[in-house]
Amino acid sequence: MRRFQIGNTVVEEQSAGFQENLAAAYRSKLRPVCLCQTPGVAMYIASVGDQLVIKRMPLTGGAHAPDCESYEPPYELSGLGPLIGSAIQIDAESGVASLRLDFSLSRKGPRTAPSQTSAGSQTVRNDARKMSLRALLHYLWYQGGLTEWTAHWVGKRHWPQVRNHLLEAARTMSVKGEPLADRLFVPEPFRLDDRNAIEQRRGAALASLHAGATGSKPLMLLICEIKEFAPTRGGQRIVAKHLPGFSLFLEEASWRRLNARFAAEFDIWKANGTCHLIAIATIGASASGAIAVNEIALMVVTEQWLPVENIYEERLLERLTKMRQKTVKGLRFNLAATQPIANAMLPELKPCPAALYVVPPGAGEEFEIALQDMIDARPDTTPWVWRVADGDMPPLP
Question: CB burial class (10 A; 0-12, 13-18, 19+) of residue 288?
Answer without folding.
Answer: exposed
